[in-house]
Amino acid sequence: MTSSQIDAEPTVSRRTALAQFCLTIAIGGAGAAGFNWLGLPAAWLSGAMIVVAAATFAGLRAKFPTGIQPPLYTLLGMTMGSGVTPDVVHRIGDWPVSLAGLAVVVALVMLATYVFLRQLCGWTKEEAYFAAIPGALTFVMAVASDRRTDVTRFSTAHIIRLFFLVAALPLFIGQAGGAGMGGSAEAAPVPLQDTALGLVICVAASFAAVRLRIPGGWLTGAFFASALASGTGFLDTHVPDWALIPCFVILGASIGIRFCEISPAMLLRLLAASVGAFAVGLTVSVVGALAVALTLGIPAGQVLLAYAPGGLEVMMLLAYLLDMDPAFVAAHQLARYIALILILPPVTLAVLGRSPRGGA
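The line above is the sequence of Ammonia monooxygenase; the predicted structure tokens follow.
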């Protein structure tokens, strides 16, 4: 092989990867547009995810460039923060009670899901335990890898759960009721200088959050900076729809493309157990959310989204798309994520013991 052929291979590979990425986004965009035409909730996100996931079983393969995440999540964080108005700040007094309820619900979700997978599905102790953890998949996989645990089965269960959350929650919450935050309502045009200043502030906050290793730093940094500017009335941080819709499509497609890592045979073997575990966890979350909503007098759909065992970024985005209080959902999802990171290592040690291979 000549040196020119060696030099050409990375270029060909990059071109192929770019073509696959563009095709995936085009397919996701078509699906999102179709869902939007049908008037379905969170259409630009869920439509792209569902259609791309279906396309993976027809042979679609793609890798999303890692460099796309920082600008994508920063812009989405800025958008969600814009939904935090001064009126929202007055409802912060409800949060301590609902956060306490969240702790109880998370513990019950883990217990119920673990018992279902261990006793009814025959999963191993480690597989059932890691699959029962609600969210924080990246951190869960890191802990499992330290124990040399096979991540295939429980990571597939996590992906399937996230898929059903994004696909089903918008329809379910639409019936349960929203908070009326105006996330999906028509917004008045925002001066370009406000948008530009807000973007600069959010980018700086995202960089700081990433450097401080805050969970979901690119999104959460921008979100809280935007929420602070909007909630105090200092700045209107709304982002125009023409910039947001591509972000929704890309995020939805990035979730759907994960199914290319799962063979149809493996999916069929794990589907019943994964869907059953999702149903068990969602049932516990719904009961807990209804109890807290009735106690505090806030919309059940809003509490359910805050308690939903899904990814931090996706649940925060759904709050915005479903016209709910993004600050309420963000605070609860972030609290759940941080709590899991803090307690997961000692709880894992208590439940599973030390790894037989010498790990903690």
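Note on the example: Confidence is low (pLDDT under 50) at residues 1-9, 177-186. The chain is about 75% helix and 0% strand.
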